[in-house]
Predict the 3D structure of the following.
Amino acid sequence: MNDFVGKIGIITGGTKGIGKFITKHLIARGAKVYVLARDAEAGKKTEQELGANCIFRTVDVTNGAQVQATIDSIIETEKRVDFLVNNAGVTQDNLLLRMTDEQWDFVFSTNLKGAFYCTKAVARAMMKQRAGAILNITSIVGITGNAGQANYASAKAGLIGFTKSIAREFSSRNIRVNAIAPGFFETQLTVGLPPELKERYLKEIPLGRFGTLDEIAEVACFLLSERASYITGQILNVDGGMLMR
Ligand code: NDP
């Protein structure tokens, strides 16, 4: 349980939902975690809850200059960065015929371009260290598709291609890049789903229940840790068996 002692990392969207639990578990294992998100109030609250090893920075991941400046200053302070979790994500669902340019771009710029900006910003330091672990949070809908989520499913599918490409690019420098594809977890992102849709999802989950945030955080910690030292370029479905093939 102390496998992150002395490790410094960055997580986007670590103030709420899945990201907050991943942050909590990493800190419990000894990591110091910089949490990047937009809502400063939630950020301050997260710092208070998770203690001195949780440091919040107000960042919108769609703003490349802001991402670069913030991550540069973290690396300058810490002299290293051991892991990055690209977790920030949003949905703006609509049927394709009604989907606006703004809905398409908003979802792509957060879920996919944000990961590009953050990964680029840590890459040089990790390459110099010849060590690092990057974890992208995609979604099973990036694999299966989902009616009403063409923007989100495409961005998450893009994140899978991004994960595998970067894993290939970075492997010679001992930087591992993996992704988790969550199934269904109750967070702010999913709370607004109609009850009948939730019932339908439940029927499709072989384990017969939604996942807990502790369960997904455990998997994230594993993939980021040295225990997963021979795993790269993988997309791990954490979905109660929904996507079993
Ligand atoms: P939440 O809505 O609970 O949390 C999302 C987090 O992302 C918040 O901390 C939010 O903070 C941050 N965020 C959103 N936009 C930005 C931005 N532009 N810049 C910086 N931070 C941002 O979502 P979940 O915890 O449910 O989702 C986490 C990840 O898991 C997402 O990538 C999501 O797509 C994925 N996922 C979730 C599933 C689920 O069942 N919940 C299923 C499949 C995938 P703030 O608003 O302050 O910026």
User: Anything to note?
Assistant: The first strand starts at residue 8 and ends at 12.
